[in-house]
Amino acid sequence: MTTLIKSAKIVDASSPHHLKRKDILIVDGMITKIEDTIIQQDATIVTFNNLHVSLGWFDTSVSLGEPGFEERETIDKGLRVAAKSGFTSIAVNANTNPVIDTKSSVEFLKNKAKGHATNLYPIAALTQKSEGIEMAELYDMYQSGALAFADYKRPIANDNLMKIALLYAQNFGGLVMSFPKNKAIAGEGIANEGINSTKLGLKGIPDLAEHLQIARDLFLLEYTGGKLHIPTISTAKSVSLIKEAKKKGLQVTCSVSINNLFLSDDNLHGFDSNFKLNPPLRTKGDVKSLQKAVKSGVIDIITSDHNPIDIEHKKVEFSQAKDGAIGLESAFSVLNSIFEIEEFIAQITTNPKEIFGLENTSISEGNIADVSLFTTDGEYEFTLENILSTSKNSAFLGKTLKGKAYGIFANNQLVLNQ
What we know:
This protein is of the alpha/beta class. The protein is 29% helix and 23% strand. It has two domains: 2-52 and 365-416, Urease, subunit C, domain 1 (Roll), CATH 2.30.40; 56-355, Metal-dependent hydrolases (TIM Barrel). Strand 7, helix 2 and strand 8 (119-124) form a beta-alpha-beta unit. Helix 4 (159-169) packs across helix 7 (208-224) and helix 7 (208-224) runs parallel beside helix 8 (236-247). The two termini are 20 Å apart.
């Protein structure tokens, strides 16, 4: 298979062609030539307005439903959506029924994903059935391809269990993740505790619930000397806690959901259940602090936190709706609406691969082609027509966004969003 990408601006700081507009020739999945102009008669030509090419995007928090919730999204459909949305790799949460907590269930996910352009990496449950009581067989799942270990959106209340997990994972280089929420403090809250929750009569979740859990985990991390990833932080104080921990030399990394980078609890007026998220939407001040932390590099990873929910569990009264929103299709356009491309590209390419233990490459001759294709130009209103997923629970419906993904070239496959 021969593919010729024409006149593409290369966005890759590790490449000698960074920020240069070049033709890229790919033969049998390998980049064989990068020059100002290439003529290749037998090639599939890829040409778009203002075409940009970067290293393949990696989303580290994607839920697909299968097994157990195929009505929300199947693995096959989800991987096709990811590819057309510009992602060459996704890490899939154990947000399934049964939970991904055994070697065989990890292998199930890997086998279902074979043959797709987008790579699927399982995030296995940290505890059996994600119940937070007994640790799962981490090493067996790691050997079968589990990329990291987390009870999706479920905090580990048992301090000793988290300590043991951090110690045990060091023996084989496993990555432990801890959702930042103290359940006792959060209680039955469904929205950020503040002026808006009070006005709307919604039970609040104090940001203290997030801070207490992060502080506990950082103390445990300092004790064990291991490494920890804290997914989807949502407050300014959380940024400060993690920044200080990094200064102390702790091996801690964190991510933020695109939802919390763009939206605030002001969006809750109207009780649209698409804004019922976990972590909840916080204040505008928190949003600004999170955006600043992306630019400064304190936040290591940006994720869409893609979580499809079927209409029966989403289009209901706000308090009864399940948490979560889809985000793959809108991810790039949202980020491109907030930041300049070089302010966030590392958080969706090289950073997540390094943190999750995957090999980084560059857009250079002789390397495997694993690239995302996109444009930074053009504004549009995000509507249902832009949603490729089975579920339609997007928090960005009706929002004006900028730029779009054209598709990917990965695993010797060209997938375009057209």
